[in-house]
TrEMBL record:
Cofactor comment text: Contains 1 topaquinone per subunit.
Needed cofactors: Cu cation
Keyword Mitochondrion found: no
The Copper amine oxidase N2-terminal domain, residue ranges: 84-165
One GO BP: response to putrescine
Assembly information from the UniProt record: Homodimer.
Biased composition annotated in UniProt, kind: Basic and acidic residues: 66-79
Protein name: Amine oxidase
Processing and modification events after translation: Topaquinone (TPQ) is generated by copper-dependent autoxidation of a specific tyrosyl residue.
InterPro entries for this protein: Cu_Am_Ox_Cu-bd, Cu_Am_ox_TPQ-bd, Cu_amine_oxidase, Cu_amine_oxidase_C, Cu_amine_oxidase_C_sf, Cu_amine_oxidase_N-reg, Cu_amine_oxidase_N2, Cu_amine_oxidase_N3
Organism: Brassica oleracea var. oleracea
PROSITE patterns the UniProt entry points to: COPPER_AMINE_OXID_1, COPPER_AMINE_OXID_2
Keywords tagged on the record: Copper, Disulfide bond, Metal-binding, Oxidoreductase, TPQ
Active site per UniProt: 380, 468
């Protein structure tokens, strides 16, 4: 090397080291293109790589340690005790499982292995339903999904006998288990082990110290490279912003072997697409200006002078008003509700409503078929772990002051337990809504004004799956209704473009604009069209497990000539659905129906079978072709409602092994067996869908958009169950003096 160039290189290294060590800022110019400087296989080989790792390691998650919590811990999880057959595994149990597995022949041979899931092996349903508090618990077992070398194994660990049994080894179906947190973290660093990746990034005018690369599940398209476990990675520049998602290095896609973490292939289709700027991408409160003249909101809070009306017994049993249910965190589903029961004010019985309910899968296909986007068809539960992505909730903002919190205890890839604190919150909500009311008009002469406030109980979690945030609410009403609501927020996944204004978009001879596959949100940024589908598993047990699915078709009936001044009216036609295929429901405004789960063996005083009905709200249906590879894997979204007979192994709508699955073990496959569903233990599956065509109001961070569905009593009670609810009285409420400021 010439002396002049040598001294230039030394000067660059010393300057970079000084800046990073003392100011934690980035390189002011692109680094040298010298191959050695770009080879980050060994961070010690290059000061650039070493400094880059210094910046990233400051933010590298430590999964074996507890997350910070803004208030004292709920309790010491080392002392957790077991009180219910469905209580999640404790720290002590996780440690025992880890110890037993470490001495098992499958894992003690020295072959590389990882535990992708360690959860409670739930007892048989009949045992749980028969169990009563005070009785001995059924034997405790752990279900383990592990990979040893290239193979996936399913095992059961009996914690009472210390026996390890292989259930399925190796697993014969397509697909792999959900990724571990360690794998996701390692893949974010894997691209920088390739000099070619580093060279490509630098050639785009981006400093490596500014780059974040993210793991993106690859889907399955039958390609040769997908005979192995692979993942894709795409990168973003964080220069000048914490919102690096708005600064994609467009077109750069890196294929990585998920087992070896080696780069297999690099594709760059966007070398001429500029990196979007950082202007207007900030969303953190402390960094936003205060020039907005909008009239601000005064703080608001619910005060409960007598304390909350709910209790949490034995860590997991929630009791509130007329409801009780078992609540636990889950690494895949997020939140699991079990043995949901409601008190009947007339019979004084506590009656069964639902044995178990949870998020089974989330399917998020993006609508851009180009090389850098076609594979973005994520399964957020089965690939990433919806519960693993749950973030600690923020008091006063995620949840109100009167909330209680519940932690999740999960494991790392080596079986070590860790605590995800503040994962779930439970609180009472009063938003000024009305439970029921009636005021008599003056014509009657009766001075009646009867109104009851609506107070509800909310169970909430929030998961940040990369850029997107999901808020899941289960809201219990005193009238027996359960509202399940999904909120979408967070940051859009955007595409870089050379366009800065709509007037630059190319048009053909007919004046049709070039297909952008989305909306131009800001200069050089396209928000790509996509869908969200959240499929819920609802094992309804209305007054017991033997139920039927009742479809109530609403039909137009024409009157006979001379029968009435009316020509038509609407009538309800009720039919019990016999088998699964007839319970595959596509919702339609022009074929309206109600969907009930009924217990024919138990009737009301006047003879109606007791039941609950599924009440859809705003939703969306997939427009993808059924033979499209992502839709084959996401075939559980072909219908909005499915009903299947209860089967302990059928819980995950995309299959137990979702990652790179072929769609051969999904809810759609199970339902096509057309099994009997009349007067037996049945499960209802409901898919809540969103079409998202981004708009500028979604930039740089999205206001929450929500939709929901209800589980509503339908002839379950003899009459209005909140008839005797008390109104609010002034003497029961705290008196707070507001400080008014004149306009």
């Amino acid at each position: 090397m010439e002396p002049k160039n040598f001294f230039r290189l030394i000067f660059l290294i010393v300057t970079a080291g000084f800046i990073i060590s003392f100011t934690s800022t980035n390189f002011p110019h692109a680094p040298s293109s010298t191959t050695g400087l770009l080879d980050c296989t060994d961070s010690s080989s290059s000061p650039l790589c070493a400094s880059r790792n210094f910046l990233f390691n400051k933010q590298k998650p430590q999964f074996s340690k507890q997350d910070p919590k803004p208030k004292p811990k709920n309790h010491d999880h080392l002392s957790d005790t077991l009180n219910h057959p469905l209580d999640p595994l404790t720290v002590m149990e996780f440690n025992k499982v880890r110890s037993l597995l470490s001495s098992d022949a499958l894992f003690s041979s020295g072959a590389p292995h990882a535990f992708h899931s360690i959860v409670l092996e739930e007892p048989e349903k009949n045992l749980v339903r028969a169990w009563e508090k005070g009785n001995p618990l059924p034997p405790r077992k752990a279900s383990v999904i592990a990979r040893v070398g290239p193979d996936t194994h399913v095992l059961t660990v009996d914690l009472s006998s210390s026996r390890v049994d292989i259930v399925d080894s190796p697993v014969p179906v397509s697909g792999y288990p959900m990724m571990t947190l360690e794998e996701m973290n390692e893949v974010t660093f894997a691209p920088f082990s390739s000099a070619d990746v580093n060279r490509t990034i630098v050639s785009r005018g981006v400093n490596l110290t500014d780059v974040y690369c993210f793991p993106l599940s690859s889907g399955w398209y039958g390609r040769k490279e997908e005979n192995k476990r692979v993942i894709k990675s795409q990168c973003y520049s964080s220069q000048g912003t914490a919102n690096f998602y708005m600064r994609p290095i467009e077109g750069l896609t890196i294929l990585i072997d998920l087992d070896t973490k080696q780069v297999i292939e690099i594709v760059d289709t966007g070398p001429n697409i500029p990196i979007p700027g950082s202007a207007n991408t900030e969303y953190r409160f402390k960094n936003l200006g205060t020039t907005d003249k909008t009239r601000g909101l005064n703080p608001i809070s619910i005060e409960q002078p007598r304390g909350p009306s709910f209790v949490i017994e034995d860590n997991h049993l929630v009791k509130w008003a007329n409801w009780e249910f078992h609540l636990k965190p889950d690494s895949r589903a997020g939140v699991v509700l079990s043995q949901v029961r409601v008190h009947d004010p007339d019979t004084q019985e506590t009656r069964e409503v639902m044995y178990q309910g949870f998020v089974s899968e989330l399917f998020v296909p993006y609508m851009d078929p180009s090389d850098a986007w076609y594979f973005k068809t994520y399964m957020d539960a089965g690939e990433y772990g919806f519960g693993l992505q749950a973030m600690p909730l923020v008091p006063l903002n995620d949840c109100p002051r009167n909330a209680a919190y519940m932690d999740g205890v999960f494991t790392t890839a080596d079986g070590t337990p860790f605590v995800r604190e503040n994962m779930i919150c439970i609180f009472e909500r009063y938003a000024g809504d009305i439970g029921w009311r009636h005021s008599e008009s003056p014509i009657s002469g009766l001075p009646i004004k009867e109104v009851r406030p609506k107070v509800t109980l909310v169970v909430r979690m929030a998961a940040s799956v990369g850029n997107y945030d999901y808020i899941i609410d289960y809201e219990f009403q005193t009238d027996g209704l359960i509202k399940t609501k999904v909120g979408l927020s967070g940051i859009l996944m955007v595409k870089g473009t050379s366009y800065q204004n709509k007037n630059q978009v190319n048009k053909d001879k007919e004046g049709n604009e070039e297909e952008l596959h989305g909306t131009l949100l800001a200069e050089n940024i396209i928000g790509v069209i996509h869908d969200h589908y959240v499929t819920f598993y609802l094992d309804l047990d209305v007054d017991g497990p033997d139920n039927s699915f009742l479809k109530v078709n609403l039909k137009r009936q024409m009157t006979e000539p001379g029968e009435s001044p009316r020509k038509s009216y609407m009538k309800a036609v009720k039919n019990i659905v016999k088998t699964e295929k007839d319970a595959q429901i596509k919702l339609s405004l022009y074929d309206p129906s109600e969907f009930h789960v009924v217990n024919s063996a138990k009737t009301t005083r006047v003879g109606n079978p007791t039941g609950y009905k599924i009440v859809p709200r705003a939703t969306a249906a997939s427009l993808l072709d059924h033979d499209d590879p992502p839709q084959k894997r996401g075939a559980f979204t072909n219908n909005q409602i499915w009903v299947t007979p209860y089967n302990k192994t059928e819980k995950w709508a995309a299959g137990l092994f979702t990652y790179q699955s072929h769609g051969d073990d999904t809810l759609a496959v199970w339902s096509d067996r057309d099994r009997d569903i009349e007067n037996t233990d049945i499960v209802v599956w409901y898919t809540l869908g969103f079409h998202h065509v981004p708009c500028q109001e979604d930039f740089p961070i999205m206001p929450t958009v929500s939709s929901s569905f209800d589980l509503k009593p339908a002839n379950f009670f003899e009459r209005n169950p909140i008839l005797r609810a008390a109104p609010n009285f002034e003497h029961d409420l705290p008196v707070c003096e507001a400080k008014y400021v004149s306009a």
